[in-house]
């Protein structure tokens, strides 16, 4: 068997992807007319928690200014993979990693990579909204100040307003910026966390089941927001909700037992999945 990485790269349209759908184990080739630029390049990525392997030989390209959804049954490695993109797994002592995660041509796991700078460029929003125990204003202003992005109060005010406007929260909070972030509703808190993530002007926002703790209306608001934010940011999101993946994601990667089984244009994956395992999963035969 070949030891070369199988690079999975989705096409751009149903017709093209159908034509290009390769045999199992063969790489997807990218539509040459595609306008999307590469954001993150992953090659032969393996991850172990102690002796237990959680990710196996993952080689995919993630594209700028798109939403990519990671789907798959519980425990298949979606969150682990997401955390590889900004080195959050470094915080877990038992973790060892091999392979390459490259952003703009730079190896994110290189010893000289500044993790703080990396996490500024690759922000993260978690399942449960986790505002700082500070005011709404400070939740946004803190990180840009720490990164020396703003010093003058007027610039800080402007940045806070922009982040809150871009996260669709400004009108709801503009008269109570000094109130605690935790005084907001769950859906508002999650938008505050998104505002906090975008305030440092990242390139990529990682979202780990960002709506699973929210009611349907707040979920719809966040999904609309993701659609707007992808004009400015690359979004990679984990979701258990297949309808959500179908609604928000341009591309979807289906994980199973630590491997990427299929990575495709979302519409293609949900209409004509290339792999039987994908079909079984999205049709609810297991999960
Ligand atoms: N901190 C950890 N230490 C040891 N094993 C872990 C740790 N985190 C995850 N794992 C294991 O790695 C595998 C992948 O877990 P991961 O959380 O990435 O899956 P997931 O697809 O995101 O699951 P879910 O959808 O349930 O959140 C699982 O077997 C899990 O038990």
Automatic annotation (TrEMBL):
The keyword rRNA processing belongs to this UniProt entry's keyword annotation: no
Region annotation (Disordered) ranges: 1-33
Residues of the ABC transporter domain: 40-282
Ranges of biased composition (kind: Polar residues): 1-12, 19-32
Domain of life: Bacteria
GO cellular component: membrane
Keywords attached to this entry: ATP-binding, Nucleotide-binding, Phosphate transport, Transport
InterPro entries in the cross-refs: AAA+_ATPase, ABC_transporter-like_ATP-bd, ABC_transporter-like_CS, P-loop_NTPase, PstB-like
Keyword Nucleotide-binding: yes
GO molecular function: ATP binding; ATP hydrolysis activity; phosphate transmembrane transporter activity
GO biological process per UniProt: phosphate ion transmembrane transport
Name of this chain's protein: Phosphate ABC transporter ATP-binding protein
């Amino acid at each position: 068997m070949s030891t070369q990485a199988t690079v999975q790269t989705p096409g751009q349209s149903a017709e093209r992807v159908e034509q290009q759908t390769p045999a199992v184990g063969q790489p997807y080739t990218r539509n040459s007319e595609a306008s999307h630029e590469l954001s993150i390049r992953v090659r032969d990525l393996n991850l172990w928690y102690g002796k237990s392997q959680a990710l196996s030989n993952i080689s995919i390209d993630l594209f700028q200014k798109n939403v990519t959804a990671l789907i798959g049954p519980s425990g298949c490695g979606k969150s682990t993979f997401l955390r590889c993109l900004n080195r959050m797994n470094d915080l877990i002592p038992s973790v060892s990693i091999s392979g390459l995660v490259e952003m703009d041509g730079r190896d994110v796991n290189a010893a000289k990579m500044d993790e703080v700078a990396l996490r500024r460029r690759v922000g993260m929003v978690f399942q449960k909204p986790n505002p700082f125990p500070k005011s709404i204003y400070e939740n946004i202003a803190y990180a840009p100040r720490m990164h020396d992005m703003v010093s003058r109060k007027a610039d800080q005010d402007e940045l806070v307003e922009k982040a809150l406007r871009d996260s669709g929260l400004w009108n709801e909070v503009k008269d109570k910026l000094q109130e605690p972030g935790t005084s907001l509703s769950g859906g508002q808190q999650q938008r505050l966390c998104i505002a906090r993530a975008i305030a440092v002007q990242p390139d990529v926002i990682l979202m780990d089941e960002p709506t699973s703790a929210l009611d349907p209306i707040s979920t719809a608001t966040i999904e609309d927001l993701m659609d707007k934010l992808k004009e400015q940011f690359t979004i990679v999101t984990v979701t258990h909700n297949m309808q959500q993946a179908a609604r928000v994601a341009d591309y979807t990667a289906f994980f199973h037992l630590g491997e990427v089984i299929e990575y495709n244009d979302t519409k293609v994956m949900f209409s004509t999945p290339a792999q039987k395992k994908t079909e079984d999963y999205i049709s609810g035969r297991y999960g």
